[in-house]
């Protein structure tokens, strides 16, 4: 995965990049957030519009600063870098950063900064 191979991202979270983090996960870490997929109507070619997010989770004592720093590294790794994200059986035509925010996580202690992206997948 591109995020694990990126030196800046891995310096911040190590190998802790998850789809579903373990219950005893160590902070900080990244989690694949929401994925929304819809058809992209074009000239007969099959393509899909994809909105997805990568969540940066930080320790309570490191706060928004750490979460934002990790999200920034994710954005630098993926924005306008479709070649960095292999998709088996399809091609990622483009990927663009859309928005990010940093806030207290639902546990009331740690912080999370989701980075949202828009992408197009094709055959």
From TrEMBL:
InterPro entries: Gp17-like, Viral_Tail_Comp_sf
Gene3D superfamilies linked to this entry: 3.30.2000.30
Annotated protein name in UniProt: Uncharacterized protein DUF3168
Native source species: Pseudoroseicyclus aestuarii
Organism taxonomic ancestry: Bacteria, Pseudomonadati, Pseudomonadota, Alphaproteobacteria, Rhodobacterales
